[in-house]
Amino acid sequence: MKATARLQLVCGECGPCKRGQYNACQKLKVRGFQAPGVAQFALTRGASKVLITDVSDYRLNIVRQCGIGGTLHIKNNSFEDGVKSFFGNEGFQVGFEAAGVQASLDNLMQFVEKGGDIVILGVYSRNPVVNMFYLGEYELNVYGSMMYRHEDYEAAVEMICPGKIMTSPLLTGSFPFNRYLDAYKFIDEQGDRIMKVMIEM
After folding, report:
1. For 25, which DSSP code?
2. By percentage, how much of the chain surpasses pLDDT 90?
3. Which of 123, 117, 74 is nearest to 100 (CA)?
4. Residue 166 to residue 45: CA distance in whole angstroms
5. What's the pLDDT tens digit per position in 64-104?
6. Phi then psi for 28, rounded to 5 degrees?
7. Of 60, 65, 143, 151, whose CB has the highest number of CB atoms within 10 Å?
8. How far, rounded to the nearest angstrom, does the alpha carbon of residue 79 sit from its chain's CA centroid?
9. Angstrom distance (rounded) from CA 98 to CA 88
10. CB-CB contact of 83 with 113 (8 Å)
11. What is the largest CA-CA distance in the chain?
12. Domains of the chain as residue ranges with CATH
């Protein structure tokens, strides 16, 4: 049997918790840390095309192993050219910023279709600048996202169990619980050649 658990530690007493939005608890604490993304889920929910950008050939190769055909190495190709080549005249209507990098946010705001949606998933080390020209001129919708709720877990299980979403390519390695320190050293040593490391309980 395999099991998972929510990472959030919430108070259950603040306004967001009382209205069921405990993922935005005012006293939220997180066990470990999250690394957002899930392109496969976008496809299963009806996206006709998904393009993933990254600066790591290794990670982009893993993305392709998960069945995502659209990949763009952002250091070797411009975002604008990559978008035009992949989406053609259709463009894209929704962008997820998961890197927490100013340039990534700038690219999404400049090249998303007018009236499009941008969802901020990344954690920024410095407060980003929002380009108000594109926000107003393009009538963009910019959303923040803070983790997930129980129903999100259920939706993920429903997609993973029948194989609609592949997870095996995302697993770089696993360690028994008594070697958890070795797992962290492994993560540090691998650099950008790592996806997920599991601790076996």
Report:
1. -
2. 60
3. 123
4. 15
5. 999 898 999 999 999 999 999 999 999 999 999 999 999 99
6. -60, 135
7. 60
8. 18
9. 23
10. no
11. 55
12. 1-33 (no CATH), 34-165 (3.40.50.720), 167-201 (no CATH)
